[in-house]
Amino acid sequence: MSDEDDGRVPLAHRVPDLGALELLLAVARHGSLGRAARELGITQPAASSRIRSMERQLGVALVDRSPRGSRLTDAGALVTDWARRVVEAAEAFDAGAQALRGRRDSRLRVAASMTIAEYLLPGWLIALRAERPGTAVSLMAGNSAMVARSLLAGEADLGFVEGLSVPEGLDGTPIGHDRLVVLAAPSHPWARRRSPLPLAELAATPLILRERGSGTRQVLDSALSEYGGLADPLLELASTTAVKAAAVSGAGPAVLSELAVTEELTARRLTAVPVEDVDLHRDLRAVWPTSHRPTGPARDLLTLTRRRPTSG
After folding, report:
1. Is the domain of 163 the same as that of 290?
2. Does residue 5 sit within a domain?
3. What is the CATH number of the domain that holds 242?
């Protein structure tokens, strides 16, 4: 088996760069390599060369060229659909990274719990950039308790949390819903259960969990209160990504937002474990200091979240 066959060739050598993918999307929009090149500010020969290079890299023809224009091949149409998802993900990455840089001229300071910061906020920031391109945003990400502290200290203009209630000293409004899922690696005994997991067993089992102060811990403690609440955690980690990685490795079962594990469940790296009748839904909320309703850019972002509802 060759290195290329078994996947050891670095991904960067196997996947076209973002510029090439953006060019392919522009060809699909315009039906013309020349117009696509003009849109991206490059020459037509450079665009042709980039398309040919991408075709060699992927090993398939992507574009049929003729005097009437450029048309995607069947393979090209399929690759274009995949490219669109990659470019959208890159745009979300860029929006989030720009906010994390915390520019000094920021006009909007946002504090968000980790699940919302990782999986929802980048899309909202892209929409805000499109509607209000002059708005500079800075982002602080942590748990729900950190969001509350930042708002009450005047360090943030708008916050986003998940949990059972609005933190003390804040007002808020629901912007969507989420559901927690009990997860295990396929090798774990829970992944092979034929009947729902008893709540008493869930409560008694050390889990891989987010830290105290997170919305996940709050919801779980409440749901399992009649069983004495959660057992001491097997591992206590400060990010959703770290919890996922530990669960995928087989270290133990975990509980995370449904928003965070779609890819792992689809790829069967994790299994959703059915649990006895229990409500693990929670509201996602925008929050702000009591009697200081959002204005200006904070109000603009709040309006966008309501136009882009989230449900789990």
Report:
1. yes
2. no
3. 3.40.190.290
CATH label of the domain that carries residue 80: 1.10.10.10
Cβ partners under 8 Å of residue 5, min gap 6: none
Mean pLDDT of 89-107: 72
Residues 150 and 289: their CA atoms lie apart, in Å, by: 10
CA separation, residue 30 to residues 9, 25, 60, 61 (Å): 34, 9, 21, 18
Q: Name 173's bridge partners.
A: 286
Among candidate residues 54, 87, 120, the one where a domain is terminated? 87
Domain with 80, as residue range(s), is 11-87
Give the pLDDT confidence of 29-67 residue by residue, as tens digits: 888 888 889 989 999 899 999 999 999 999 999 988 877
Count of structural domains, the chain: 3
pLDDT over 80 (residue 136): yes
Considering the domain architecture, whether residues 185 and 276 belong to the same structural domain is answered as yes
Q: Which residues contact 166 (CB under 8 A, 6 or more apart)?
A: 172, 285, 287
Task: Give CA separation, 124 vs 131, 134, 137, 150, 302, in Å.
Answer: 11, 15, 11, 20, 9
CA–CA dist 124, 96 (Å, integer): 10
Helix (H) or strand (E) holding 61: none
Are 181 and 275 members of one domain? Answer: yes
| Per-residue model confidence as pLDDT tens digits over 170-199 | 999 999 888 999 999 999 999 999 899 999
